[in-house]
Amino acid sequence: MSQKNNLVRNASFLMIAAMISKVIGLLYKSPLSSIVGNMGMGYISLAQNAYMILLMIASFSIPQAVSKLISERVALRDYKNAQKIFRGAMIYAAAVGGVVALICLFGARFIIPSNQPNAVLALQILSPTIFLSGILGVYRGYFQAYRNMLPTSVSQILEQIFNAAVSLLAAWLFIRYLSDGTDGQTAKWGAAGSTVGTTAGVVIALLFMLLVYGLNRRGIRARVKGDRSHREMSYGQILKLMILIVSPIILSAFIYNVNGYVNGVLYSEILGRQGADADALSMMYAEYATYFMSIINIPLTLSSAAPTSMIPEISALYAVKDMKETRRRIDQTVQLSMFISIPCAVGLATLSQPIVSFLFGGTNGVAGRLLTLGSFTILLNGMSNISNGVLQGIGKPKIPMITAAAALVVDVVAVVLLLLFTDLGIYSLLVAMIIYAVVVCVLNDIAMKKYLKYKNPWKNAYLNPILASVPMCAVAGLVYYGLYRLIHSNAVCLVLAIFLAALTYLLVYLLLEGPSKMSRMPGGRYLVKFLGKSSGRK
Fold first, then answer.
1. What is the pTM of this model?
2. Which 3-state string (H, E, C) describes 248-297?
3. Do residue 250 and residue 217 come from a single domain?
């Protein structure tokens, strides 16, 4: 396969893996809640939230850092230092992950709120996962640097499958054999058992990556042995490079996550002081944070596959000063992201209420309205993910951190003003979310123009997906609401509407783009061949 198609191929692998993982993640939550109960799910959430923060510190940015550093060396045929960076990254991940894992194990009681002691055990069980995730991240970043996304994709699917299966089994076993049958103990041991699944998933994924690495070891050694023209870097130099790249990425992610937390606190505190009922506020916030955001994050996960696969490509091209090809790859990434993001945004807006009702039966309808109004944030967040990836890839990781900090300040000011001086309520958080994404996009775009002289390909990337989404929207609405009048089955109508709408989008997009351009999209070659054979039979 040509280099031109590498990005699409790699992004396709990651998208498929992301979709499968998200579906599995959604499906197993329902039986898990039946096993551990609402209280147990609360303990799981507390433990998982703390775990994610610790994981962010220990290993969140390791795959990106390793991918960038090694891809730069590979582009220069410096295989000796590429392998040394791999070993240095392993030492870094083991050291940092080990320290954070110990903090998690022995400090869990101080991390979890003092009034929720039953969640402590669940967090402690997650502590080895923090250490193992860092090692796993190094292996994933290593293969991503060589533009091979298949091992990462397969490992992600395996991780999620074993996570779901072991979580359900361990939760049931812990409750049956360790709990005394009281509600509190059932919830405690159920939550603890479910977190065993997270560890099991990471262990399986790591074993798979070790197997893949072992199968490629002979070729790796041959490349390193054949490189006699480069002087080896010291581990001190590698550590310095790792910290310089990792730290800004961690801080950027931390700011983004803190943003959601701060908005939630401001919403509760400001409206609470204005006399709003605490339970009502909690229910409304669940509509936004639990229902709306859970749905929005699915297409965002898909569209983020393109930036992930782009980082080693951009890093390698920038390392050899090929600016023209660098800009072309960015254009390709934007086009790929919009090919997915635009129809997802339009489709979610069109079928917002049926989708929310299907996934979350307890909704009061606010999440559906939030989805209708806020679905286009998928486009904004997709673009911010791409621009963050580009700036990280060209060695400017501090810029996304600075833009995230600036966006956070604007976001907080907007939330406070909206909550104090308008009646928007929970919709204030949606407006602030939009403002945050716009600020990041604008500031990152300015930086990309400065360092790459880059111009966003508005016509090529946006026009045809928008035009193809118009008939798709019509088909989705007509099929769902027309069929619902006849059979009154939300699930059946929704599945048929989504299938026919997606088919309509692909057909119209193919007509607009033409077979040659469509073949560069994920699965495009197979779709073009299939449609060609179908028309030939007629």
1. 0.74
2. HHHHHHHHHHHHHHHHHHHHHHHHHHCCCCHHHHHHHHHHHHHHHHHHHH
3. no
